[in-house]
Amino acid sequence: KIRVFWFRRDMRFEDNVGLYHALSGEFQVLPLFIFDKHILDELPKDDARITFIHDELQKMRSYLQEHHNSSIATYHDTPENAIKQLIEDFEVEAIYTNRDYEPYAQKRDAKIDALLAENGIEFHNFKDQVIFEKTEVEKNDGGMYLVFTPYMKQWKKEFKNIDFKTYPSEDFLDKTYKNTRLPNVSLSDIGFERSSIKVPKHNLDKTLLKDYEETRNIPSIEGTSRLSPYLRFGTIGYRKVIEKALSVKNETFLDELIWREFYKAILYHYPETQDRAFKPKYDRIEWRNNEEDFEKWKSGQTGYPIVDAGMRQLNETGWMHNRLRMVVGSFLCKHLLIDWRWGEAYFAKRLLDYEMSSNVGGWQWVAGSGVDAAPYFRVFNPYSQTDRFDKDKKFIKKWVPEFESDKYPEPMVEHKMARERCLETYKDAVKN
Ligand code: FAD
Predict the structure, then answer these.
(1) 187-214 pLDDT, tens per residue?
(2) SS3 state at 394
(3) Residue to mutate, 201, 251, 256, ligand 1, most ligand atoms under 8 Å from C-beta
(4) Are 382 and 327 within 8 A, CB to CB?
(5) Which CATH number fits domain 129-164+201-269: 2.40.160.20, 2.30.38.10, 3.40.50.920, 1.25.40.80?
(6) Closest Cα to residue 334, out of 394, 391, 405, 282?
(7) Percent of the chain with pLDDT strictly greater than 90
(8) DSSP string, 158-181
């Protein structure tokens, strides 16, 4: 009999909780990855995330082959079918995995749990991608915090009470299943092409973390960690990141990591808000939803250089600076009165770090409809955002070099008119 460890958003050997537990028994452990057809069928064939996942898996595979005479089995199917196949092909004692809190993943795992139970196979899940999950950070009277600051304070309080440690799964890889000829699917087997977009390098240097508070809002410098894609796929261990965050005095970086957990907990508790306003009145907003306007926004042709610079950065690199995510998001929802769900869906397609909880959280924040959101009457002024965060226009010059020439479009809407139109529309929706 063998055990299986199923990699999902935890694609690493180091400090992997579920893998650590799987390896700590008497059985050899077969590592598994499933290219989920339900997810892949929705993606364009040159999706950069699939290239990234594929390459990471190949690296992991080669590592196991070279050092441990073992491998990773990769399947391309629905998770149900892949698991059925796996338990037909091997005598499986139990499947180990790390918990995933997204609504789709919750349903998927419930199905797999039932399928395995029918076959007398255990399914073990562990907490790996967050410090606190589900109801672990709650108000004193129970219930989820709906405002970030008290959640963050409680998170820090609870953190002092836990036995914070890492899990040295990497030290037990010799227990992986001794077979180098496991099923393996290539990019072309799953119908994908290699993308030219590469995941940016991350930076967790002490200097970056120390200066983070000053640098993090300036898009023209590399003042943020760019950890987001790595955290999304778990190619870097979260507890190591937390350790780094704790190693500097300033807590701003830690607080951002706590925002990530906050949004995860919100989506876990309120899965319906993946496509519904957290504050129901905001679903009464009469969006203009003009398709042509949406195209201009997507392609970075709005005539607002700071907005266009952000959108072009996203289109070309698969990543966008947080300040600009707020600026372009506010512009879409408030200046153009386009439903935040359209923006959310576009980001979901393009972002290497796409994470439903943070993306929906971020979009509902800019739209004003979410938990602890920007008040609706706060309409970001693209010009004053430029003055504050890109004063010498370094970022704009990089991404919109033609911005002062006659090749560049006029602003697609006039700021003052758009602001007033937005306030009236929102006021109508949220009254009484
Ligand atoms: P750093 O500033 O170095 O922060 C470190 C880590 O903290 C990030 O990697 C991320 O995991 C977390 N973090 C930082 N800011 C936030 C935040 N506001 N909310 C939640 N977590 C945060 N982040 C995603 O990971 N995926 C998304 O799909 C996503 N969509 C967003 C959409 C909108 C409209 C907005 C306003 C924000 C969104 N964010 C999203 C949050 C944030 O913009 C990114 O996490 C950040 O820009 C990633 O760059 P970084 O790793 O250099 O961040």
Answers:
(1) 999 999 999 999 999 999 999 999 999 9
(2) helix
(3) 256
(4) yes
(5) 1.25.40.80
(6) 282
(7) 97
(8) HHHHS------GGGGGGGB-S-S-
